Here is the input.
Amino acid sequence: MTIGIDKISFHVPDYYLDMTDLAHARETDPAKFHIGLGQDQMALIPKTQDIITLGASAAAKILTADDKKMIDMVIVGTESSTDFSKSAAVTIHKLLDIQPFARSFEIKHACYGGTAALQQARDYVAAHPDRKVLVIAADIAKYGLHSGGEPTQGCGAVAMLVTKNPHLLAFNNDSVFYSEDVYDFWRPAGHDYPLVDGHLSNQIYIDSFTRIWEQNKKINQTTSSDYAALTFHLPYTKMGRKALRAIFPEMSETEQQRLETRYDEAIIYSRQVGNLYTGSLYLGLASLLDNSKLAAGERIGLFSYGSGAVSEFFSMTLMEDYQQYLSIEENQLLLSKRKRLSITEYEEMFAEKLPTDGKTYTFSDPTKFAINKISDNIRYYNK
Ligand code: COA
Here is the structure.
């Protein structure tokens, strides 16, 4: 049976910061951000939006009334939970009017959570072929003003509907995993921002990729020429490029060029959004599908990395006429219609937090799924 991603969509808020403005404010050469990190813009989120509004907004674009009757599981992969106990998935389940006899839960391991969710969805559909699973990878990457990680922030959500006979991509059941207990990025309870050894995380990312790539070649008997494209977790777009180039010595120059061109197509959206932690691999996948001329039957490799560190490499095959099921214009409009904020507006928005004193506060954010009230530390959403 063929199982895979039937539909994919993403959502980012209506605001962004231009990386040149950030560079000037931080007295840094803008080329460091645009070329050194490969980032042009960074998505910004107001306090009236969270991973629930991001995830619901992404999923609402792809779900039909019929899908909502067929979904048995809603899984949210995130490391930006709004609650240590209740999952974002159960609120998204309600906001989207998904049939009540469904499982809803959150899954975590740094930026790897979305992949864990996706693989769990595949297993569920394999056992229940007529049912569907909604996977959401949603995060808000915040390192702090003036921090080393500040230029690698961002936010957003990717939603994927996993079904049998998918319209877009089929799993090839060829996953290779790798775990290594390391402290390159972690956020202990009580910390608003992660603790991060950025240069160590870069190194572990590349080492994990090269190890898993070797293991993949051994187990799945493939070489780079078997993949139409290799896509990567994208904390910033230079990161995946460094990993890709780490395996260039085993390829011809033509092969290097081919994969680097596909890579450039896969980072078009991330250059404008920044880091969405667990969703960033899948924003890269969406960018590749929207911006590359690929053919049905071609295989795409996906490298997922979550600091700490867990990684997975797997591949998916493009389905017949997959191009007909993309929303390219809608995706481009979502990014182009956003408002550019000044540094002062960014810093103010960054500092704003929802109150936690249990009193009642109301908000007026007209966005479809925004928070309109908080009371007793319960968030209420527009619907
Ligand atoms: N023009 C062009 N490139 C420039 C430049 C300039 N003026 N100045 C610096 N650069 C390049 C550097 O050469 C470097 O490129 P390289 O990595 O290919 O060598 C890149 O810009 C980054 O410079 P660096 O000095 O390493 O930046 P940094 O010390 O500020 O750290 C991160 C960068 C990514 C480590 C930091 O932003 C961070 O900690 N981010 C959060 C963690 C993260 O995203 N980890 C990724 C793995 S999950």
Summary: The chain has two domains: 3-168+326-381, 171-322. The chain is about 35% helix and 25% strand.
